[in-house]
Amino acid sequence: MYEKAFGVAKVQKIPCDAGIQNEDSSPGLTAKDSSAYRSVVGLLLYLARDRPDLMFSVKEVAACMSCPTLCALQRLRKLVGYLKSSGDFGIKLVPPEFGHGRWKQGGERYWLAETFSDADWAANESHRRSTSCAVHFINNSLAYASSRTQRVIALSSAESELHSMVSGCSDAIFIKRCLQFLVPEDVEHIHWVDNSAARQLVARQGVGKI
Questions:
Q1: 129 and 64 assigned to the same domain
Q2: Which of 23, 78, 112, 179 has the fewest CB atoms within 10 Å, counting from its CB?
Q3: Helices (H), 13-156
Q4: Which neighbouring-strand residues pair with 138?
Q5: Helix, strand, coil percent values for the chain (each to nearest 5)
Q6: For residue 99, is it within any domain?
Q7: So what's the pLDDT on residue 18?
Q8: Nearest by Cα to 101 from 111, 93, 116
Q9: Which residues pair with 149 in a beta bridge?
Q10: Do 72 and 119 share a domain, yes or no?
């Protein structure tokens, strides 16, 4: 659909580069090209649910759906070129093992849900809002992944990571309850994060200045 409307897209090795979050001041597309742009991005939004490697790039090009620009079209071209080289990628689901997760081994319960969250701090040059990312595994198999733009401007990397943890943990609670509805057993959930400051914030107890 993209090549029918905008021409051939060259094969790419990566879905996007660092410039995808640069400020966009390029002219807008025509009404016809804007309609074609939205159609292609709509297909990508459907596809991204099964392709975690596309989620961030699709989120960025989808942010321009209301008013597509020439620069957004070039970013979409690169993403389509990456799809041409990775059309056979997929998610491998493995048989569950007792307490065997992606990172933790030997859990106390059979079902083990793990969440990995991360964030980039104010990487977008136009609005300076961070991106929250979370990947959820159930017994070492990918269950769900997300990439979302935060609604607030974080003033520190710890705050950015904290928003990402809250967003990821909210999804994890829902996934855990859905799994507990399907299986007659308790589900153990573990949240992994690499930012020590954010980890200390969520581990605090009692009232403090923060």
A1: no
A2: 23
A3: 31-47, 55-62, 70-85
A4: 113, 141
A5: 45, 15, 40
A6: no
A7: 85
A8: 111
A9: 131
A10: no
